[in-house]
Amino acid sequence: MTIKVGDKMPSGTFGVMTDAGPGAVSSEELFAGKKVVLVSVPGAFTPTCSMNHLPGFVDQADDLMSKGVDTIACMAVNDVFVMDAWGKDRGVGSKVMMLADGNAEYAKALGLELDASGFGMGIRGQRFAIVVDDGVATHVAVEQPGEFEVSKAEAILAQL
């Protein structure tokens, strides 16, 4: 079943890079008591994701935070090393938390997985953005295939 407004975010764990190496953060740690914008992209280093989607959230981070957002997190079905390298490549710094959903478990728990096998990419997460307030989805913006409108930073900023 696909996540919708009013639903509690599913439990899960994301890979994150720490100063000591690969680590993990639970969905409870990520969402409890905070307003979070969870952005999902089909893949790190892919064209739209690298040139538009992630950079938009980096560029709009201060504006999003001024609207009460505590954390901006970008999730992709990649490993923690790739997500860390991509974040460094895109200069996210501390503006965006890079989350690895290596086996697409969280994308599947949200009901937002994408079969990109036809492109040689296997199971991925769809392109989306969810505004989460204390563990509850308050805005869910899922892109139609090939689109990039409702989940971009400017569209999410307009919803806050």
Helical segment count:
6
Residue runs with pLDDT of under 50 for 5 or more positions: none
CATH architecture: 3-Layer(aba) Sandwich
Shape: globular
**Mean of residue pLDDT values:** 94
CATH topology: Glutaredoxin
How many β strands by DSSP?
9
Give the topology string: H per helix, E per strand. EEHEHHEHEHEEEEH
Supply Rg: 14 Å
Distance between the termini: 25 Å
Protein name: Glutathione-dependent peroxiredoxin
Domain Thioredoxin: 3-160
EC number: 1.11.1.27
Function: Thiol-specific peroxidase that catalyzes the reduction of hydrogen peroxide and organic hydroperoxides to water and alcohols, respectively. Plays a role in cell protection against oxidative stress by detoxifying peroxides.
What labels would you give this structure?
160 residues; alpha/beta; Glutaredoxin; five-stranded mixed beta sheet; two-stranded antiparallel ribbon; 6 helices; 30% strand; globular
